[in-house]
Design brief:
The chain is built from ten helices and 35 strands. It is of the alpha+beta class and 607 residues long. The strands form eight sheets. It has an eight-stranded parallel beta barrel with strand order 4-5-6-7-8-9-10-11, surrounded by five helices. A six-stranded antiparallel β-sheet has the order 28-15-29-34-31-32, with no helix packed on it. Strands 16-27-17-23-20-21 form a six-stranded antiparallel β-sheet, with no helix packed on it.
């Protein structure tokens, strides 16, 4: 018996002392098999943390109507364990209910527990508190990382172990790590590390088929796979070429595209991304003609609510991701079938097994407009900052156990100063003030620009408001992406010392006091509107500068006038009949009245 066949039989066997499950899943030769019969996985990626819990079932019904039979899902470590040992599985983090709902809707489930996810999510899913060890090396055998990852994996998977197919549930496969082959040396290509993650997953009680997922390039497959586990490949173009390359690595194994990129994500300041439907439809058709399994990434992207949008670092430099994770997916950010939905559905429909039919497309959820309303109360930001930390040199966010949001760095001068102000290794966006007078911006996106020519009065403190725009979620730069002013500040070549640092970054605003009138930015602005009928909407942020929005205490995420995202998705479950409260933190002076409206659609445009 070949090793992979033996592994598959083990994965499909029930635990001793338990009743025989209704179904079994595994591998026989070059096929996935469900209940002993060849099975083509038609999967779609959807992340529970990016979708209000009330909408999970709606999105799943639309997946089934699209023609999919499986749901693939990441879990995000930083969402589940925001502080060491403090776990959350409530609200839209209730992974067990998410999986049970998928089962009820007729979907099989593939679980991707990490510990690394990528997914354009803050720090690739890693909690920021890992970086409270300044020299920690994530995704390596660094014992501090492995110990924390092992504890997280076991706690997370305790929620889902009873939901495996071996115990009557819908989970058919679990992924080991994620695209590890793309993680470059000297950190990557470590089988000891990969096997340690696999051991954590197995020790947690997972007994279904394990697999690895990587890009199809030679070095990715060589560095990211384990010889005794199935391997799938990720790509967004023509599958013919990708699987031809995979065949040089492995043969006579099940073929699957673990992520078929049918859209793409957006960076602030870049143009809105869309996928090439003709390429993707042809690719899906080609794979289904050959009984090749696939996972549409994303079938429904959702939203990186709050501070959870990540960032990339490419040759062009630092690239922060937008709040919207619409991804040009077949099911859009608000859960509506996009124009490409029916094209994908018809392509899949041509290849259904005999006797299988697709359910009808569910009726759309209501979308509402909200008439324009004013935000006529405000509070300046700086007086709201609390809990000062002092040090000779600036401290990073992580050194102050401050995960997200802002830090105000403040120092007193001994008189007027003039020259070049240099922020060594700023991460990521800074507004510089002479007292309350704004004198300039330093933006990490702009190719290592880290200085301003300043003429300071000396009568007021030098103040530097720094925003974490998202920790890097992919590639080697995520290893050392601490936030804040990460080294030192010099003025005319002389280092400035004796800093006071004040923090701001709440997920929920508690006890905010505002007064009528408009404060000078940066400030928080408050207003309200009334509703008789509830529905999803998109807050129109045009005319505002840069900041964050809370509605009825729920943080929607970041907006920025540079685009391409000009609206913020506001789901109906976060609204209420009667009065609704909105708070906007804006870092810039307005281009018009401080007002908002709710639209029926996203607006994508660049400033």
């Amino acid at each position: 018996m070949k090793r992979r066949d033996a592994l598959s039989i083990i994965a499909a066997a029930p635990l001793a002392g338990q009743s025989q499950p209704k179904h079994s899943f595994g591998i026989q030769g070059d096929r996935f098999v469900l209940d002993g019969k060849p099975f083509v996985i038609r999967s779609g990626e959807m992340h529970y943390a990016r979708i209000p819990r009330e909408y999970w079932r709606d999105r799943m019904k639309k997946m089934r109507a699209l023609g999919l039979n499986t749901l693939c899902m990441y879990s995000f470590w930083n969402a589940h364990e925001p502080r060491p040992g403090q776990y959350r599985f409530d609200g839209n983090l209730d992974i067990a209910t998410f999986i049970r709902t998928a089962h009820e809707e007729g979907l099989w489930v593939i679980v991707r527990p990490g510990p690394y996810s990528c997914a354009e999510w803050e720090f690739g899913g890693f909690p920021s508190w890992l970086r409270e060890y300044p020299d920690i090396k994530v995704r390596t055998t660094d014992p501090r990382f492995l110990t924390a990852a092992d504890q997280y994996i076991k706690r997370l998977l305790a929620e889902v172990v009873p939901l495996q197919i071996t115990r009557g549930g819908p989970i058919i496969m679990v992924q080991v790590e994620n695209e590890y082959g793309s993680f470059p040396k000297p950190y990557g290509a470590d089988r000891v590390y990969l096997n340690a993650i696999r051991k954590s997953i197995v020790d947690a009680g997972i007994d279904v088929t394990l697999y690895t997922s990587d890009g199809s390039l030679d070095y990715m497959l060589a560095n990211g796979t384990l010889p005794d586990l199935p391997s799938v490949v990720n790509f967004g173009g023509a599958p013919q070429q990708e699987f031809a390359n995979f065949a040089k690595f492995r043969q006579n194994v099940p073929l699957m595209c673990g992520e078929y990129w049918c859209g793409w994500f957006d960076h602030w300041g870049a143009k809105h991304s869309t996928g090439d439907n003709s390429v993707h439809l042809a690719g899906i058709d080609w794979m289904l003609q050959r009984n090749i399994s696939f996972n549409l990434y994303m079938v429904h992207g959702g939203t990186s609510f709050g501070y959870m949008a990540g960032a990339n670092f490419d040759k062009g430099g630092y690239e922060p991701d937008t709040t919207s994770y619409d991804y040009d997916a077949p099911i859009d950010e608000a859960g509506r079938p996009a124009p490409k939905f029916n094209l994908f559905r018809e392509t899949i429909k041509k290849h259904l097994p005999p006797g299988e039919t697709l359910p009808g497309v569910p009726s759309p959820l209501p979308i509402i407009e909200i008439p324009r309303f004013s935000l006529d109360e405000s509070a300046p930001l700086f007086p709201l900052l609390r809990s000062p930390v002092t040090a000779a040199r600036p401290k990073t966010f992580e050194a102050m156990s401050h995960p997200y949001g802002f830090v105000l760095y403040r120092t007193k001068l001994d008189g007027p100063k003039k020259g070049k102000l240099v922020l060594n290794q700023l991460h990521d966006y800074a507004i510089v003030y002479d007292g309350s007078r704004r004198i300039g911006v330093i933006d990490r996106r702009l190719n290592e620009q880290n200085s301003l020519d300043v003429d300071l009065s000396g009568r007021a403190p030098l103040q530097i408001l720094v925003e974490n725009m998202g920790r890097i979620n992919y590639g080697p730069r995520m290893i050392d992406d601490a936030k804040g002013i990460t080294e030192k500040v010099t003025l005319d070549g002389v280092e400035l010392t004796q800093w006071e640092m004040l923090r701001f970054g709440p997920e929920r605003l508690v006890g905010l006091r505002t007064a009528r009138g408009s404060s000078q930015a940066p400030a928080l602005f408050r207003g309200s509107f009334k509703l008789d009928t509830l529905g999803d909407t998109f807050l129109d942020m045009r005319g505002w500068g840069k900041g964050y929005v809370w509605v009825n205490g729920n943080i929607l995420g970041r907006y920025w006038s540079i685009g391409p995202q000009q609206t913020l998705y506001l789901p109906a479950p976060w609204l209420r009949r009667g009065e609704n409260e909105v708070v906007v933190l804006d870092l810039e002076e307005p281009k018009g009245p401080r007002s908002l409206a709710g639209l029926k659609d996203h607006v994508w445009e660049n400033a």
